[in-house]
Amino acid sequence: MANNASGIKKIAINTGGGDAPGLNAVIKAATVAALNRGWEVIGIRDGFNGIFLPENYPDDDGLLKLTYDVVKEITPLGGTILGTTNRGNPMRYPMKDTKGNIVEIDRSDEIMAGFRREKIDALISIGGDGSLYMAHCFAQKGLRVVGVPKTIDNDLEATVITFGFDTARSFATECIDRLHTTARSHRRVMIVEVMGRHAGWIALESGIPSSADVILLPEIPYDINIVADHLQKHFAKGRTHAIVVVAEGAKPAGGDSSVIEREAGKAERLGGAVDRVAAQLKDLIENEIRTVNLGHLLRGGSPTSFDRLTALRFGAAAVRALEEGESGIMVALNPPDVNYVPLDQVSGKMRSVPLDTDVMVTARDLGICFGD
Ligand code: F6P
User: Fold this and answer.
1) Residue 73 has what pLDDT?
2) Which of 11, 211, 347, 356 has the least C-beta neighbours within 10 A?
3) 204, 360 in Cβ contact below 8 A?
4) CATH assignment at residue 232
5) Do 28 and 112 belong together in one domain?
6) Which of 300, 332, 357 is the last residue of a domain?
7) How many whole angstroms separate alpha carbon 174 and alpha carbon 251?
8) Structurally, how many domains does the chain consist of?
9) Which domain holds residue 193?
10) Could you report the per-residue pLDDT of 7-20, keeping only the tens digit for each?
11) Does 355 map to a domain?
């Protein structure tokens, strides 16, 4: 094994942002690969909270010692054994000023002090756009950091896929398959919402294989009259029912995504896209409409074998990267390899569905309507 030229003795792992199936598999692979190199491994609880708010964790000061025993059966487990948060970004931490107004404070130096206090030589940070942005900032402040791309939304740059996405699209496909039978029995239009805040990957890649008739993506503002016209023609051909898949960030032409919460220090919350489409369609078509929001069901459950393998590869590669002296990079899947990309190529960027890809062309060839 390695001669530890990296000088690393102790690493930390954290998980940030919305959870995604496969997080535990990354933790498992990174822990085992690091322990096998003689490194000590600790997990930070709840994003960065465990390291800068240790007083909130009376049992273990916010740090979980990761051993072979702790990680031995976690590969198939959904969620994250470390906990996570998409509230209270430490770089824009919401606090009350003297007048009682909420202001955002940068508390990243307290986190850097926490890493020094705990004698942590390097961090493996598993997360989406927000967490990778933070990882990039810590790398710039001198911490050795390797990022691991996670999100069911699959909207990160520089990797062909993020782990968690395959589980989400597979489960959404299965759910939409089930909706066909009930929709057919009642001659209904079923409108189903799936996660996908800024990018429509889940809607697109579950909607096509589950034979959706309409797919509405954040990338293509929709005209509801075009959707209604498509459905009318569809029923005029003698079809019994229809399925409309709506990404949560879908927006009407000239309108915006449906936001239900916008507060300092918190990620914006979307909601209601499916109800908006149903309300807009109600007076334009005759068939009965029902709605369903798959929401957080898509984040739960056990990762698919693809997500497990990708996550395990990412975790092991993150440790190899640290051993090789890398920092400020993210591991990425660029088949057949896992390679390293600088965090500044990823941080603050978002990967939308490209509208000219073969997948989109296939959907259009299949007659799927995008409301444009
Ligand atoms: O992880 C991204 C995501 O799945 C988005 O699609 C969704 O908008 C968001 O998480 C919801 O997160 P939460 O309900 O945890 O705030």
Assistant:
1) 96
2) 356
3) yes
4) 3.40.50.460
5) yes
6) 300
7) 25
8) 2
9) 167-300
10) 999 999 999 999 99
11) no
CATH number of the domain where residue 75 is located:
3.40.50.450
* Residues, the chain: 372
pLDDT tens-digit readout, 294-352: 999 999 999 999 999 999 999 999 999 999 999 999 999 999 999 999 999 998 899 99
Catalytic residue (one of 19, 46, 129, 153): 153
Centroid of ligand 1 to alpha carbon of 130 (angstroms): 12
| pTM confidence score | 0.95
Q: φ, ψ for residue 269 (rounded to 5)? A: -105, 130
Helices (H), 208-336: 224-236, 273-282, 305-323
Ligand 1 site-directed mutation target among 194, 197, 270, most atoms within 8 Å of CB: 197
Residue 265's pLDDT is: 61
C-alpha 120/C-alpha 293 separation (Å) is 42
For 320, the 3-state DSSP assignment is helix
Residues 334 and 288 in one domain: no
Name the DSSP class of 50: H
DSSP secondary structure letters along 152-168: TT---TTSS--BTHHHH
Contact 158, 299 (CB under 8 A): no
Q: Could you tell me if 187 and 258 lie in one domain?
A: yes
Same domain, 221 and 95: no
Which of the listed residues 86, 155, 261 should we mutate to test ligand 1's pocket, taking the one with most ligand atoms within 8 A of CB?
86
- 223 catalytic? Reply is no
Q: What is the pLDDT of residue 261?
A: 80
- Is residue 153 within 8 Å of 195, Cβ to Cβ? yes
Determine the Cα–Cα distance for residues 191 and 193; give it in Å rounded to an integer.
7
Q: What percent of the chain has pLDDT over 90?
A: 87
Give the model confidence (pLDDT) of 49-103 as tens digits: 999 899 999 999 999 999 999 999 999 999 999 999 988 788 888 888 899 998 8
Q: Is the pLDDT of residue 358 over 70?
A: yes
| pLDDT at residue 1 greater than cutoff 80 | no
Q: Locate the ligand 1 atom nearest the alpha carbon of residue 195 and give its number.
A: 6
CA 141 to mean position of chain CA atoms: 26
Tell me the three state secondary structure of residue 330.
Answer: strand
- The span from the CA of 227 to the CA of 221, in Å, is 12
